Amino acid sequence: MIADLAVELIHATVQIEQPMGDGTRTVGTGFLINAPTLDGQPRTVLVTANHVLQRMPGVQARIGYRIANADGSWSYAPQKFDIRDADGNPRWTQHPKRDVAAIAITAPAEFAKAAIPKDWLAGDETFSTYAVGAGDQMMALGFPRGLSANPAGFPILRAGRVASFPLAPAAAFPTFLLDFTVFPGNSGGPVFMAEGVRRRPGGGESQEVQFIAGLLTQQVELNSERLEIGIVTHARYIHETLALLDNPLAEITVAQGDLGVGGAKAASALEAVSPDY
To answer: Is the pLDDT at 116 greater than 90, yes or no?
Structure first.
C-alpha cells in the first residue's frame, strides 16, 4: 500500500527549465518514475508533456533537484541534462499520438530513490475498479508560471474535480477534464487521486484510493478566453511511452475518438517564461 501518494509525488515532481539567453527561462513540470530496463537494470525516467521539451531549443535543460540538509532544511540544486544531441535531435521518446514524453536520466542517488514505481500509474481497469466519475476530486502538482512552493523548489499542490463524463475506456476517451485553472508551467505535472479523497455527492464514502490518473497536458480555451479547465491525458499513454523506450515498435493505442468541448479548442498549456535566477 502507498503510504501517502501526495507526499511521495511531491518528492518525485521536478521543475524542468531552460535559460533562453535573454534573462528569461522556459519552465515546465515533470516527474520521476522508476522504470527498470527489460534486463532488470535500474533506470530513472523523467516523464513530462512532449510540448514542454519540444519548445526547449537548446541541447541542455535543467532539472530542479532538492537536497535535504542535516538541519532539516532543504536546498534547491538544479542540474543540467542533455535533451538533444549535438545536431539538435531529441534524446527523449515521445508518444506518437499523445502529448507525452519520457527520457532516461542519471539522477542523484537521493532523487533516484524518490522516483515512483511505474505500477502506481493507473491501468485500464483502475477507473472502473474505484468507480471514479464526474465530480470526484483529484490533485495536481506543478510550477505555475515557474513558481515553486518555497525556495527549496518543491512543487505547488492544487486540486480540482473531474469535470467530464465518461472517463473510460482510455482508448475511447484518451483525455478527461479537470475543473482546475491551468497556468503556463503546469504542463507535464502528475494528476492523481489520494487516500481519503472527497468523493462526489452520492459517490460513496471516502476510501483508500491512491493512483496516478495521468498528466496535465492542455487547457481549454474559447475565443482566446481561458475557461479554467485543464485537460488530463490518461496514464495509459504514459505506460505506452515507457514501453517505447525499450521497444520503438511497441504497441500503442490509436484512440477511437478524442475529447471534444463544444465550441472550444484545446490550447497547449505553454511553459512559463519567467526571469532566469
So the answer is: yes
